[in-house]
Design a protein that fits this description.
The structure is a homodimer.
Chain A lengths: L5 H12 L6 E3 L6 E4 L3 E10 L11 H17 L3 E12 L5 H17 L3 E9 L4 E10 L15 E5 L4 H14 L10 H8 L5 H10 L2 E6 L4 H12 L2 E5 L9 H7 L4 H7 L6 E5 L4 H8 L6 E8 L3 E6 L2 E4 L8
């Protein structure tokens, strides 16, 4: 296997960037790129570091490339924004195989294409370990971007999809690495997939931003105990969520039992689900569900916003403070 | 000395970002930041990796922080743009001292403030070695951004400032590290400074873009042999530069002699001068110099654009192809 060449990689990136789109005034190949922008631009950047954020022994390059993009698209989704442009900074060890990084690029580009986001710039450098920094630019929907600051007392708290799958998937993958003879459970594929290949809630985020009912939103990257606490702090309110209402995938219970861990712990504290947590204006829950139409199956009301501060979990009639008890990267 | 804490660093970054400016609609503290933008946005990203791009044994944190920002501002300068916003992604080893990264931040912020550029986002992660990724956004001057593509046959070739200082400074610093007993030469301070604390040509770049005389421009980060070759390739022309005309600092000759290296080699091939190389429209050289006024001492005509391809150095009446013989990072 041949080690990667910077020339080949840059040529690959330049080809990928050679997409004609009217809002790309100048693409890769100059000192800057020049983008046609509107009155406001959303921007987010995230860095993934080998052995801190991913394990290449079970996270294969195609899905890792997809995920490096997905976690940034998720930040745009959390504002209800429309992704437009991406920049990649790749720090790669000298001995990395060309095929590995080519496959990583295939994955990254597939995720960008899925969300109509075009690669416009970046940088490739040599370093001791893999570090991927992705920057994504987007625009808000016409109704405006959704901040963390808008939650009001009496609003209801909602999440998209299911919680805890990515966290349980990661633990199962780590367990399989340590004990390769463990019999795999087919039902766990969905949990592996949640960790290895998360799908950012881009379109759903836009629909929520357009609804006029959503008052605050953010994505779930560190577990809802932490991410909802961010909304509460920014909005100067408190939230209480009901452990009975937390949505989970059918196989989470069994996986948690196998791992001797609590399914609720996964749902509250484990990161990287890349779902959205949001609040719906007081008294508008029913109208909101009607507005969602077929997509109502993708959202779940898990609690409500109250005065005070912090996030509380209601279980067996008791409320317990769980603020910021999520995963720390 | 205490190791850095992510909490302290993020709090520091948040304080630095808490600058009220009407074009920052939403700063650090949400999933994205939201920026007021105009019809077009310039963007550039660069990654600096320890032991590849810098040596912390002689590059102290304050100046290193300044330089991490400067190399990105230089990309905006190369378009004649106005820097507006910056994002920082910091990958830091666990054992790094808090004071080191605080001082690095002081330096980075000082450079941002000097050019009225505001920190709006970023990411901090743990990793094995120092990796700094900086993304800078700017806007073109009203006359438009200067690309690499506009050089025409008959245009004259110019550079700002002097060449080779940063390259010679780096070699002198490396030499001093190996041979600490070497007697320092006061005249070399300017060369050290050129490597350790380069100043991006932001205001000069804007003046050049506004002139209406400049047809193509880029910054000198890899040595003029490579950087002018980029303009030639993008503009589908050739350039010939005269070795007698290359501007150097007074101490370069002596430093090169001390290092047993050629001063011309430093001027042509060594990177990181962060000066600008640009072309002036045929027949407009005199008007251009008049337009520059007092700043004419900051620009030097070093050659001209011809048909064909590649960059040629004229020396003792002979022209030699030097295309892409600059420094490779």
């Amino acid at each position: 296997m041949a080690a990667w060449s910077e020339r080949k990689l840059i040529s690959r990136i330049q080809k990928a960037a050679a997409i004609h789109r009217s809002d790309v005034l100048l693409s890769i190949g100059d000192d800057c790129c020049e983008l046609a922008t509107g009155v406001s631009t959303l921007i987010s950047t995230d860095t993934l570091v080998e052995s801190v954020h991913f394990d290449t022994s079970f996270h294969l390059p195609y899905l890792l490339g997809r995920k490096a993009i997905a976690v940034n698209l998720s930040d745009i989704a959390a504002m209800g924004g429309i992704p437009r442009f991406a920049l990649l900074s790749l720090c790669l060890p000298e001995e990395l195989e060309q095929e590995w990084i080519d496959t990583w690029m295939d994955g990254a580009l597939s995720m960008l294409h899925e969300f109509d986001c075009v690669l416009v710039g970046g940088d490739t450098v040599k370093g001791n370990n893999l570090v991927f920094t992705v920057t994504v630019l987007g625009i808000p929907v016409n109704e405006g971007a959704l901040y963390r600051t808008g939650a009001g007392i009496g609003d209801s708290v909602w999440v998209t999809g299911v919680l805890g799958s990515a966290g349980a998937g990661l633990e199962l993958l780590k367990n399989r690495k340590k004990n390769p003879e463990t019999v795999d459970n087919e039902a766990w594929e969905t949990l592996y997939e949640a960790h290895l290949n998360p799908l950012p809630r881009v379109h759903l985020g836009q629909k929520l931003a357009r609804s006029g009912y959503v008052t605050a939103m953010q994505d779930i990257s560190d577990g809802i105990a932490t991410d909802l606490a961010h909304i509460c702090r920014a909005s100067k309110v408190s939230a209480t969520i009901d452990s009975e209402l937390l949505p989970m995938h059918g196989s989470l219970l069994q996986a948690a039992a196998f791992l001797h861990m609590s399914p609720t712990m996964f749902m509250l504290r484990s990161g990287e689900d890349y779902q959205l947590v949001f609040t719906v204006r007081e008294g508008k829950g029913k109208s909101f569900v009607e507005y969602m139409g077929e997509d109502k199956r993708l959202v779940t009301n898990i609690g409500s916003v109250t005065s005070g501060e912090g996030v509380y979990l209601l279980k067996n009639g008791k409320a317990r403070d769980i603020s910021f008890q999520g995963y720390e990267h």
